[in-house]
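Sequence in, structure out.
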Amino acid sequence: MTVPTQATKISIREALRQAMCEEMRRDADIFLLGEEVAEYDGAYKVSKGMLKEFGARRVVDAPISEAGFAGLGIGAAMAGLRPIIEMMTWNFGIQAFDQIINHAAKVRYMSGGQFKVPLVLRGPNGVAHMLGATHSQYIEPFLAHVPGLVVVAVSTPYDAKGLLKAAIRDDNPVIFLESEFMYGDTGEVPDAEYLLPLGKGMVVREGTDATVVAWGKMLKLVLRAADVLGDDVSLEIINPMTLQPLDTQLLVASVNKTHRLLVVEEAPAFAAIGAEIAAQIQERCFDELDAPVARVSAKHLPVPYADHLERATLPSVEEVVAAVRQLLYMDTQA
């Protein structure tokens, strides 16, 4: 991944705020709606200062009713506005699934294109820390399954800003997945305006021995595992960025080069995004594979509250290192 030389190091939180502010200055039809986004500056301070700049008509505190304000956002989008809906957490966003799945995802198709739904629904996804099972769920397998929705996962400040700007300008409903753990993560972001296309992945690190696909917090995990493995193992690391539609062409090209694939994801493995990636590669690259597709994922159980048990359910650097070594038959006795 190459970032232009004129860049500033900022956090994911700041990158998201910059994206929203730049787009709201550009287009008066864009507004932000959600719980505590205005007076409190956002539950995670992503919208800090936005009420002061844009006023209460464009940065709006919503009542505690995800189904209600998601429905309001869908109606506003159908009427020509471009809402950004913040879910305090996607665990609460489950309350809005009827609105998202039965309406946002289907209105454009069922109206024969007469209505567009330029709507972004964004907020933290997955495990944070010691919040218990009902606040630690992975929403991407649920919503990536639904035709009509675009699903994006944030991994760095660079892709957070570029993807959010692209999502705001898209005429389809976009599910935008962030992480409470990562809002403070920093990285280089170009000073000049840029957008990252939806539906396109990125090669984070080029390699020849095996392809590793990861997004969100797992991308950091994989990069740490690559450092542990050292120069003896050349990993090609891919951040898909958009999970629906998936950049299958990029994945196929990489696996055709490395002949091995490992998918690392935070969600449990059953019926998850990694299962779809594995199936796509099996169908398209069977003759190129030198080993079965490998996967590292969370344990299939509700996430415990206790710190040590929570960590035990999640993928670790050690598990990724072991999976890579097994994929490359490094531990096979002669």
